[in-house]
Amino acid sequence: MDQLEWIRGLVIDAETKILLVVMDGLGGLPLTPGGPTELEAAHTPNLDALAAGSICGMSTPIAPGITPGSGPGHLALFGYDPLRYEIGRGVLEALGIGFDLQPQDVAARGNFCSLDPESGVITDRRAGRIPTAIGARLCEKLRAIQLPGVETFVEPVKEYRFALVLRGEGLEDGLTETDPQQVGVPPLPVEPTRPEAAPTADLLNKWLAEARQLLADEYPANGCNLRGIAKDPGLPKMEELYGLRCGAIATYPMYRGVAKLAGMTVLPTGESIEDEVATLKAHWKDYDFIFFHVKKTDSAGEDGDFARKAEVIEHFDRLLPEILALQPDVVIITGDHSTPARWKAHSWHELPLLLWSRYIRPDGVTAFGERPCMQGGLGHIHHTDLIRLAMANAGRLVKFGA
Fold first, then answer.
1. How do the residues of the chain divide into helix, strand and coil, expressed in percent and rounded to 5?
2. Which string of DSSP letters, residue by residue, matches 297-329?
3. 154 by DSSP, 3-state: which?
4. Does some domain include residue 202?
5. Concatenated DSSP letters of 66-103
6. In contact, 394 and 72? CB cutoff 8 Å
7. Same domain, 239 and 265
């Protein structure tokens, strides 16, 4: 039996509230042998106090040794098996900016990048994180590209990111990405992974060739790549599965997109963690489950900035008492994936995790960090386990069997 269908049969109503805090890319690594991770180096008295009254552990997003993308990492936290429900990042970006994505559309996440004018190799995969205003101007320029038999939409997302959507008959997904995930090499072509996707791959390669011509004089954003090229798969919604009114608070479009895909109501918010906390307070009474996303832990990790990642964690820690003052019945704090500053990218490492409710067995962990959480009572679990634990601790699941 499908796990989601099985859980649906155990769900009951209750007047309880669940808060899931996802600190993007939370997991880290020491810079020196025996040294602290970013989380362990950060001064976090409030997280430590919460951990001391919680049950802690380590969680694997997908499977041991597998490095997850942000989409699979989040879907797993919401209870969806990421191996069954594969979601292209293009779909998440398009939904995250409120684009009216249709079932036949093929969506891609675009990244402006820097190319060496002579060799054509990538010198910066993110074009120096150009400001959003520049990205929007470049998207306007790219809207001039026309493809035979399809409509094209080029929409700015944030900084160096944009969404490309093709709309027309006969479009197929099953397409590879063009970002080689490293510098010093040229972008890759779009390749079909299924024979019927070959015409769509040809259209995207034609679009890319014209885009790179139009961007040639726009250094540092004189090139672009496409990632996560896909169609909307149509997920079962969280409210139907778990009987929860679900809200989402996130500053970046991609995370708003994954929340919308799962059926959450995306709540408008500002750019800072303070803004997100204000949004949480304003909408607290309206929802049974709120997903609260903190982005800049991941950005700092990708930039290789150990100290800045620790500072973002400390920033959140200072605001945690305001969040806990709302008196949630269940609190889970973890990450979607690890992004160690030492690695400068997503990694396969487990995530530290705490779960607080009135019904847990405290395990003796007194600090929130990777090494303390390795000793926690939850042990080593998977992201997909967390929604069941949250529901149980919120009194929202009945007994299984006679």
1. 35, 20, 45
2. HHHHHHTT-HHHHHHHHHHHHHHHHHHHTT--S
3. strand
4. yes
5. PPPPHHHHHHHHTT--TTTS---HHHHHHHHTT----T
6. no
7. yes
The DSSP H or E segment spanning 392 is helix 383-393
Q: Based on the fold, state whether residues 146 and 223 are members of the same structural domain.
A: yes
pLDDT above 70 coverage of the chain, percent: 100
- Domain with residue 285: its CATH number is 3.40.720.10
Q: How many residues does the chain have?
A: 402
Cβ contacts of residue 344 below 8 Å, gap of 6+? 301, 302, 303, 304
Q: Is 244 a member of any domain?
A: yes
Locate 239 and state its tokens: 């409210």
Q: How far from the centroid of its chain's Cα atoms is residue 250's Cα?
A: 10
Residues spanned by the domain of 146? 92-230
pLDDT digits (tens, 9 = 90+) for 142-184: 999 999 999 999 999 989 999 999 999 999 999 999 999 999 9
Q: Which residue has the tokens 């900016």?
A: 97
Residue 297 main-chain phi, psi, to 5 deg: -60, -40
Alpha-carbon span 220 to 116, nearest angstrom: 10
Amino acid symbol at 126: R
| pTM of structure | 0.84
What does the alpha-carbon distance between residue 310 and residue 313 come to, in Å, rounded to a whole number? 5
Residue 1: CB partners within 8 Å, gap ≥ 6?
none
Q: How far is CA 211 from the centre of its chain?
A: 27
